[in-house]
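Sample entry (100 residues):
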Amino acid sequence: MDTVAEEAPGADSIALQPENQISITCEASPNQQEIERRREIVRQFFTDFWVSAEDKPGTFAERLNRAEGQINEQLAAREERWQLDAATRKQLGLPPPKTV
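Predicted structure, serialized as tokens:
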């Protein structure tokens, strides 16, 4: 009578998954509070990037495209686990990146 195996048939399934699958499934979609936190961080880094610039592009989308690299460097320096990319922009309600 091996009832333990019957009670928890999937108990070992997490341990058997390849490491790359585990990392993909562990990151949950951010809730509204986290989205607002991320928007504020991007806003601050964006402002810091452009505050002293004299020659600014005409549109917000163009400015965001030019600032993206610096924003991502600052996110990495803060050890944030996300980057400003196309998916994050969509999630935060920001314009998509310029496609060349």
